[in-house]
Design a protein that fits this description.
The structure holds three protein chains of three kinds. Chain A is about 35% helix and about 25% strand. Chain A is built from ten helices and ten strands. In chain A, α3 crosses α4 (about 120-130) and α3 (about 105-115) packs parallel to α5 (about 150-160). In chain B, α3 (about 40-60) runs parallel beside α6 (about 105-130) and α8 (about 155-185) crosses α10. The longest helix of chain B is centred in the middle third of the chain and has 31 residues, at about 155-185. The radius of gyration of chain B is 23 Å and the shape is flat. In chain B, a hairpin with a 2-residue loop joins β1 and β2. Chain B folds into two domains: about 1-130 and about 240-275, no CATH class; about 155-235, no CATH class. In chain B, about 70% of the residues lie in helices and about 5% in strands. Chain C is α/β, with parallel strands linked by helices. In chain C, the strands form two sheets. Chain C has a six-stranded mixed β-sheet with strand order 6-7-8-3-9-10, with helices on both faces. Chain C is globular, with a radius of gyration of 20 Å. Chain C has helices spanning about 45-55, 80-85, 100-110, 115-130, 145-160, 175-195, 205-210, 230, 235-240, 245-255, 270-280; strands at about 5-10, 20-30, 35-40, 60-65, 70, 85-90, 165-170, 195-200, 215-220, 220-225. Chain C is about 40% helix and about 20% strand. The chains are: A alpha/beta, B mainly alpha, C alpha/beta. Chains in contact: A-B, A-C, B-C. At the A-B interface, α2, α3 and α4 of A face α8 and α10 of B.
Amino acid sequence: MIRAEELTFDYERLDEEGKVESRRRAVDHVNLHIRPGKFIAVLGHNGSGKSTLAKHINAILTPTEGTLWVDGMDTKDEEKLWNIRQDAGMVFQNPDNQIIGTVVEEDVGFGPENLGVPTDEIWERVEESLRTVGMLKYRHHSPNKLSGGQKQRVAIAGVMAMHPRCIVLDEPTAMLDPSGRASVIRTAQKLNQEEGITIVLITHYMEEVVEADHIFVMDDGKVVMQGSPAEIFSHVEELKKLRLDVPQATLLAYELQKRGIPLPDGILKNEELADQLCQLKSKM
Amino acid sequence: MLRDITLGQYYPAKSIIHQLDPRVKLVTTILYIISLFVAKGIAGYAVATVFLVMVVKMSKVPFRYITKGLKAVIMILMITVIFNLFMVNGEVELWRFGFLRITDKGLRTAVFMAIRLIYLIIGSSIMTLTTTPNDLTDGLEKLLGPLKKVRVPVHEIAMIMSIALRFIPILLEETDKIMKAQTARGADFESGNLIQKAKAMVPLLVPLFISAFRRANDLAMAMEARCYHGGDGRTKMKPLHYESRDKMAYGVSWGYLLLMAVLSFAQGFYGVMLL
Amino acid sequence: MSIKIKDVNYIYAESTAYEIHALKDINLEIPDGQFIGLIGHTGSGKSTLVQHLNGLIKATSGRIYFNGRDIYGENFSMRELRSKVGLVFQYPEHQLFEVDVLSDVCFGPKNLGASKEEAERRAKEALRMVGMGEEYDKSSPFELSGGQKRRVAIAGVLAMEPEVLILDEPTAGLDPRGRDEILDQIERLQKERGITVILVSHSMEDVARYVDRMIVMNQGQVRFDGVPREVFRHGKELEEMGLAAPQMTYLMQALKDKGADVDTDATTIEEAADAIEQWLKG
């Protein structure tokens, strides 16, 4: 679905005459391969390059060096630009700044309109997408009256209506409250499981990634760790060094291990930890 | 005060006015404005009033909501009235204080001018209250469509308008927030002379501009990500086509303008009788 | 510096179709030097309440006393109140406007009438307090990272030397690193200066870790007020308000449900670890 080879991107700062004054490397020789239908998470703190990477998948940015393919299409190929953007949709961080329509359904229709979809089909797609994200009853509302989580779900529906095979969500929950955050993540999971859409979730909230199929951890423009959630979260010390959070259950298990209690690595959920502890107790 | 502007705000309701084609509403609003300037005498204004009241009733927008829009322009209204009241010289003097005098003609002009302005604002508010900004820009785009042939970027203008309308409430809210935040840091937006007041606006305007640019940047990116590439090859979710009710509405509007013209013409002949 | 809130009601857009009863009969007392967490779902009235405390919003009815003086009284100076009760809004970095960091932080003290030297002294002190070194004094605030911008904005309020510091979701949108840095600095500040801090938040983990008193609001009313572990005992009610207890509370509950005889009051990792260790060895 998505493949990056030696992907590198420099932000350039131009002086007044338009010459490159300074460069800052945001993504540094990244190699990755994302298979169709997977739920992928990219973790990293601000400035780690994860958002820059995300913008490459939608061809908003093109690599300074290296190559990125979306469904076999090179993002540098300008003729494929609109195909790539239709194929890999993108949801951004700020819910207010990505809604174009003044009525929910009109906003969802914006993408298909740009693709030149016939009118009747636009209506079908809009209805279907709004139903999938659970916002159908708000179709005639103004986006300004919705909560942050609802706005993000409208934005997701707007991407869905373009019938993409992959959706990149760039910190979609950073500006939301806990219940909004949960509703957006649930929606992303549903799209992945029920519609088979590949999800690339960029985030710094670790509780959102425990269910992911695969996690990439980025730091300073590089992929520094990758693996399943259980694998990633068994490296508590490394994650702490990267100043990333670890699920609370994992932290507690780690604390107990340090106190000499023999628990396995990679515990992610409360239930898991409680089970393990009860087993230990029964053996005592 | 900024919050009182109803112009450009949509009031959702299910009414025949809401359902009309935006082009009909745009054209009717223009016809109505013309009619206000054609109107002469009580009869003309009476017809204009009846027409307006009918449209307001049919639109199902609460009257209080409409009049809220007037608050924002009350100053302009007052100035116009006062200006006309004292400046227009008539024959019969009604009141005098020093060099200030009010005559019958001045009073009449002032009253009619006020009515004209109020109706104009109510009339255009009704249009924006019953038409979603998207519909409005679609209508405008279609009406101005012929101008594309002379290379006027009609689609782009329409898109700019619709985005502006979408972001007005967001920026108003933001203004309020920044103002409060700076007040909490001891800023004072109210007292002082004009220069001090202007200086006090800097901590408000700079963050507001920065935020507006940031939003513009974000929005441009979001639009591109959703394959926006100008008006070419774009289809419409809600294409415009006239229904029979739209044709009827056109008939009513033109009929109304004709009536107003006739009345005004008659006024020329029988001026005294009709006042 | 005590604050006393008596029977405060606030009705937004009174007698219009949009009327909202945002605050209902609020009675609270905030004594000196407490670290308070104010929790509530979006729209619970918590932001409205804190704006009352420095006079940005006037209550529809009720009284607020600052050090025993009625802030709606005739001779009460709002400017003085605003210098004593500092309020840091959500996303405070959006209010930065000056050409350099130092001038921006000087804005508050200057508004209070401090001389240029005095304002700069206070600004520098405030900037060091939030961990912004001298090397940043002359940088443009717009070239800093998100976390740094936020700290500069907080310094902008600290430079007014408030005795009560209110922060409305100071960690929103920050990554874990930025979040920990800011919360640690606020905690240190509270301890070293003995000022009252009110932290508006919806992160239960943050609150459990830092505060000594928790006020929970829902639908414009104060629903719980007490030390965190007491409040977290009401897990069910908190969930009904769209809030949640800290993860540790759920874990201890899960253990108890499986028949373990553990104390479910633990709210932080350390407390939970202690309780589990005790239970395993016991």
